[in-house]
């Protein structure tokens, strides 16, 4: 065929590049969840979001009546309801556990401070933090390395078309929840919002896997969801539910899934995601009402459920616009610098973690001790201040959250720096957001806390433990926002608590580059719609400023973790290249009736997940492209051993030999391997008729298409494979198969 000639002409030019490609394929791949924590390497698998149109699946769909369609639709909504209910319950449980564990720790430490047993107080505080940190690190390192970090980069990559082992497994879910509670309770500068996104996605993925054959938990109905398209929709709903559960922000959760993690969206998915988030809000409301009766320990006296602490009549004037613009500019600069420093720190952590589990745990222990020393030691630098007489809140607040921590001060005095350091991150944010507290904090205390929290948030992320970036950024942004409010003095009429809210928005926009979702989340957190214009202004400015320096934090982490990712836009140089410029050979193809031995050889010697199927005489008048067959389907055919003794079309109806369940995809990260299939010498000489299982309508483009257009087609349609054919009319001159397994197409982007 002409393909051989094309390959022969380009072979010499591509030999060096192909050698590098082969090295990358054969080398270990430090993927997403394991790259930063230095765990063992694992392969990456692409997801097939394209509808498979072959004779077998067409016949299966035609056999389904209206009852099957009704079951399918009912099951979709039922699973969305379950995802929302479970995500809301887990979010509530996380807050309940953190508030009580951290609350007991601070109460015990405060009692020792009252008794002037400062040494013992520090020992209890640092010791409990150390134990909690090491517990989170040990279970993550040994049980589920995929649970480390926030998990948002993994979810984002999955929705972009990449699957890696164990990112959504049940073990990862359990470790994510338990480890997050321990890590946040240990006073590390980490949050639980990011892990909640991963948790919601895990719940959705597990529910959509169709049960477990291993534990005999299967249901005939759930087989409808054993495909990547439906699981992608469920994971998207789960990610939005995670944000809704973390902040009690249902609309913000839906917008977060749309703006930040999803690569593909449609109106029906928006409706289901909104329904899922609404279920989260209802569940949280019901559970919180139960706790208001005092049956949940310390829960309800803090916690990142809703910071309903701002003034109901927030007023601002034209004179307040310059300070808001200044906040946006500073937030963009600080956010981009935050991303820059975090990228460097994570690279250093990666070098340390690669040395082994002991080094990972040693790093976590070091950061825990350093953090405890900062939180307990720095408040001693602040002077005691007399309690204000016009405050309705008790002063000093002993053994609980509040703006007036006594720490080492005498009666009727408080330590404003201790109110920031010696508290949970959530309670500190509440203190900074509080209205009518302009004179509570000193400039020096706010400045010292800002610098410390800024860098503690950076060094705390990347440890081998579940940790998020949302809350540290909210906390740090609130601190510098209040500092700007103090420096403005009489030049602005805004309350310092409102400055803190705008500061949080600006730093989130500068680091994460989210606008709409962050705006809505901030408004739902503070329950103050009057701030909408200022929050919008600050976010737009901070994102614009930060975009001139570097990418958003999640894109940087995706790249750092080794996750292949297709951007939403094409680079300018891609318009100067065609798809024929980036394809590689030789092309691996199958015939419509193929020898078993040839199939086994190709599957063992290549890593592609799709192969073109060519029909030649006597099965067609001339060589013709029949379609594309998936590796997963070939493995099913080999396992079932329905072989032919001669090279001829099968005269048996495929539906009598196979069922749709045979081709249903297994759970996330689980896949069959050709190495697990053993065939006899006699079977290797037999044949398989691939026609009933070949997708007869794969996406095909001509070789002159620009690389930019091919990229957009890949991302917008969610393709796994793209066939490139020459402009000549002879389909036998097939040029190459671009595979979204990141072996040809993605490596050249």
UniProtKB/TrEMBL annotation:
The record ties this protein, via SUPFAM superfamilies, to: CBS-domain pair, Clc chloride channel
Which top-level group of life is the source organism from? Answer: Eukaryota
Has keyword Transport? Answer: yes
Localization (cell): Membrane
What keywords are assigned to this protein?
Answer: CBS domain, Chloride, Chloride channel, Ion channel, Ion transport, Membrane, Repeat, Transmembrane, Transmembrane helix, Transport, Voltage-gated channel
Transmembrane region(s): 72-98, 118-144, 234-257, 269-288, 324-341, 361-382, 499-523, 529-546
The family annotation for this protein states: Belongs to the chloride channel (TC 2.A.49) family.
Which protein is depicted?
Answer: Chloride channel-like protein CLC-g isoform X2
């Amino acid at each position: 065929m002409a393909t051989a000639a094309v390959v022969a002409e380009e072979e010499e030019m591509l030999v060096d590049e192909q050698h590098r490609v082969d090295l990358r394929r054969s080398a270990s791949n430090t993927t997403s969840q394991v790259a930063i924590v230095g765990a063992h390497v694992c392969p990456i698998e692409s997801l097939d979001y394209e509808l498979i149109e072959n004779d077998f699946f067409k016949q299966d769909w035609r056999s389904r009546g209206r009852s099957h369609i009704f079951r399918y639709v009912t099951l979709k909504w039922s699973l969305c309801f379950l995802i929302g209910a479970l995500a809301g319950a887990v979010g509530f449980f996380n807050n309940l556990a953190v508030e009580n564990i951290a609350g007991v720790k601070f109460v015990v430490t405060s009692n020792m401070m009252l008794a002037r047993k400062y040494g013992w107080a520090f020992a209890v505080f640092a010791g409990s933090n150390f134990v909690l940190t090491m517990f989170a690190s040990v279970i993550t390192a040994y049980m589920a390395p995929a649970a480390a970090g926030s998990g948002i980069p993994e979810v984002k990559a999955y929705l972009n078309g990449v699957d890696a082992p164990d990112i959504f497994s049940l073990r990862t879910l359990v470790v994510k929840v338990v480890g997050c509670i321990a890590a946040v309770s240990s006073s590390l500068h980490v949050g639980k919002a990011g892990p909640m996104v991963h948790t919601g996605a895990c719940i959705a993925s597990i529910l959509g896997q169709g049960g477990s054959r291993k534990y005999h938990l299967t249901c005939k109905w759930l087989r409808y969801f054993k495909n990547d398209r439906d699981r992608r929709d469920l994971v998207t709903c789960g990610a939005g539910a995670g944000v809704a559960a973390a902040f009690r922000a249902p609309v913000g959760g839906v917008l977060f899934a749309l703006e930040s993690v999803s690569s593909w969206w449609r109106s029906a998915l928006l409706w289901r995601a909104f329904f899922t988030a609404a279920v989260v809000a209802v569940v949280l409301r019901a559970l919180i009402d139960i706790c208001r009766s005092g049956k949940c320990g310390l829960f309800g006296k803090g916690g990142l459920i809703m910071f309903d602490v701002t003034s109901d009549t927030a007023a601002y004037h034209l004179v307040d616009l310059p300070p808001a613009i200044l906040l946006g500019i500073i937030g963009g600069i600080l956010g981009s610098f935050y991303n820059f420093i975090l990228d460097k720190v994570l690279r250093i952590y990666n070098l340390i973690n690669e040395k082994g589990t002991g080094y990972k745990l040693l790093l976590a222990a070091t950061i825990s001790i350093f953090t405890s020393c900062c939180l307990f030691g720095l408040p001693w630098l602040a002077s005691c201040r007399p309690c204000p007489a016009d405050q309705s809140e008790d002063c000093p607040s002993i053994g609980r959250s509040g703006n007036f921590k006594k720490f080492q001060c005498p009666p009727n005095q408080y330590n404003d720096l201790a109110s920031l350091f010696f508290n949970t991150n959530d309670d500190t944010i509440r203190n900074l957001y509080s209205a009518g507290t302009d004179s509570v904090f000193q400039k020096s205390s706010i400045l010292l806390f800002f610098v410390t929290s800024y860098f503690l948030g950076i060094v705390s992320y990347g440890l081998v433990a579940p940790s998020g970036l949302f809350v540290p950024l909210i906390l740090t942004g609130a601190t510098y926002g209040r500092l700007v409010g103090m420096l403005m003095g009489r030049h602005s009429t805004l309350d310092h608590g409102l400055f803190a809210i705008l500061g949080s928005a600006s730093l989130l926009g500068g680091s994460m580059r989210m606008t709409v979702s962050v705006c809505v989340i901030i408004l739902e957190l503070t329950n103050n719609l009057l701030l909408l214009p200022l929050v919008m202004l600050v976010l737009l400015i901070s994102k614009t400023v930060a975009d001139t320096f570097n990418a958003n934090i999640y894109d940087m982490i995706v790249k750092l973790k080794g996750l292949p990712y297709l951007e939403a836009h094409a680079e300018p140089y891609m318009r100067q290249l065609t798809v024929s410029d980036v394809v590689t050979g030789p092309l691996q193809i199958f015939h419509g009736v193929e020898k078993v031995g040839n199939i086994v050889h190709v599957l063992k010697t290549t890593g592609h997940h799709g192969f073109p199927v060519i029909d030649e005489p006597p099965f067609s008048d001339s060589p013709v492209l029949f379609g594309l067959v998936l590796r997963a389907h070939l493995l099913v055919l080999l396992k079932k051993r329905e072989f032919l003794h001669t090279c001829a079309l099968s005269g048996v109806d495929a539906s009598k030999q196979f069922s749709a369940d045979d081709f249903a995809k297994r759970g996330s990260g689980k896949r069959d391997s050709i190495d697990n299939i053993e065939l006899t010498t006699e079977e290797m000489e037999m044949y398989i008729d691939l026609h009933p299982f070949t997708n007869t309508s794969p996406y095909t483009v001509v070789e002159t298409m620009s690389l930019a257009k091919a990229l957009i087609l890949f991302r917008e349609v969610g393709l796994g494979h793209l066939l490139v054919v020459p402009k000549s009319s002879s389909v036998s001159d097939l040029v190459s198969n671009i595979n979204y397994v990141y072996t040809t197409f993605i490596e050249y982007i």
